[in-house]
Write a structure and sequence with these properties.
Elements: E1 13-17, E2 21-22, E3 27-28, H1 30-41, H2 48-54, E4 57-61, E5 67-69, H3 73-81, E6 86-94, H4 100-110, E7 136-137, H5 139-149, H6 161-170, H7 175-180, H8 182-193
Parallel strand pairs: 2-5, 3-7, 4-6
Antiparallel strand pairs: 1-6, 4-5
Helix pairs in contact: 1-3, 5-6, 5-8
Length: about 210
Amino acid sequence: MAEPHAHTPSPVLYSVAIDDLRPTQMTVGMREVDEKRKAWRGLDRSKASGFLGRHMIPVVRGPKEHLYVVDHHHLARALYDEGVKEVLTSTLADLHALEKDEFWSFMDNRGWMHPFDTDGVRQPRTKLPKSVADLEDDPYRSLAGELRFAGGYAKDTTPFSEFLWADALRRRVDRKTIKSDPDAALEEALAFAKSNAASYLPGWCGPHKRS
């Protein structure tokens, strides 16, 4: 009888410089980044290494051994802004042997890239930033994150699900309102999220039923 789990590989973790991480998206929600920065600053320094161990950055190894972040861009940017030099990464796939075009085709088809700008317009993959420091602010991504935390929709495994909500909100909530009255913007977002008009989006929780 074979030993149980004899062929189960152990996850391979690496400590890498944040400067060496390459994003696979163009934007983040800076309000969400700021919240993560506050949480990091409020963390007992003795628990910092444990926090990093529980929040590994998933990456794909690509051509020329570059490491491409496929999730937790907000955390990576927050840690960078807080002066953290290295993070732990977990490698989801090693694609360094692929040619550049084949690599990006695979990443796109796998749902591991989101090259959309602050207006929600798809850009060539050459426009992707080379560093998490160059990620730009999309206020609608912030609003989408706040909407989820407010119970507007559930966390979903669909790749870049928050960006799908952000794009929907981009068409329904005025950008000026987000800046001048965030609470009003969130109320508008909640009204949309609880309507049947949002039923096509990942994590939709159904219309709000009044008692």
